[in-house]
Amino acid sequence: MSTAGWGECNLRECSVEQSLFQYRPYLAATSVFIALFGISGIVHMVQGIWYKQRTFAILMVLGCICEIIGYGGRIIMYNDPWDFNGFIMQIVCITIAPVFMTAAIYVTLYRSILQLSPSSASFKPALYYQIFIPCDVISLVLQAVGGAMSSESNGSSQAGVDIGLAGLAFQVFTLLVFIALAVQYGFRYHKDRKSGRVKSSGLDTRFKIFLICLSVSLVLIFIRCAYRIYELSDGYSGSALHDQGLFIALESCMITAATLLLNIGHPGLVFDPRRRSSIPVDKNSHVYSSDETNRDMEGAAM
Known about the structure:
With 302 residues, this protein is mainly α. It has a single domain (21-272), classed as Rhopdopsin 7-helix transmembrane proteins (Up-down Bundle), CATH 1.20.1070. Helices cover 71% and strands 0% of the residues. It is built from 9 helices and no strands. Helix 1 (27-51) runs antiparallel to helix 2, helix 3 (84-116) runs antiparallel to helix 4 and helix 4 (127-152) runs antiparallel to helix 5 (158-195). The termini are far apart. The model is unreliable at 283-293 and 296-302 (pLDDT under 50). It is a multi-pass membrane protein. Pfam families: RTA1. One of its GO terms (cellular component) is plasma membrane. The chain crosses the membrane at residues 26-44, 56-76, 88-114, 126-145, 165-187, 207-230, 245-265. This is RTA1-domain-containing protein.
């Protein structure tokens, strides 16, 4: 069955199998995801103000806004599977949204290392965000350019697909390197504590919840990015693009869960300056406040 072009058909005249995705997005599921991202974004905003974690809050709220716009595009495509604006809203915004979330995680690991034990890191802790956030920006630009080229070609540009895939592949590679370095730091910190080189209290319940939620969120985002590479590997004509169940399971559920976990294990649990006693800080190192960390980041960016 041939595919009808954008704006050339409607549900009264054509079968939904003639649309690009070959399905109508589930309205109920899409509405639920919009509501969850909306709630999570509002909670992240409130948490950022309450805990004075403005960088983390800004990045997470931007990610949630992109998700809401993207799923808004899916609602448009539920009503009209041949609506090109709905397609672009989805393909661009849902694709780039997790980039903001991974940037928030990169900043958070940097702050965690400063609080726990900078001496246990293999290199200067600031390099964690000085390297990985620019990598995130590169990934964001590639994915946005790929989406823009798809927009200009009405979704038929193979070059747009290839550039978008390059951005996703680079994001997956960056996440792999980041995860490896985070795991390495965890082992080094544990070893230094056992040997007495780091004189700190043990991880309390709040810090454990924070680390677990952060780690699981990172893995969920990684799974999602790997799925998106698979989904677009055959372009817009591939069978993976037509599998709505797979999209909901490996895109929608993964990112929704990651976003909500970052509400539950919010950095404010351990970095709130009003609860400094909850941080298992190395007694030989400086305790950084949120303002000091933000000044460090702003200075490094100049």
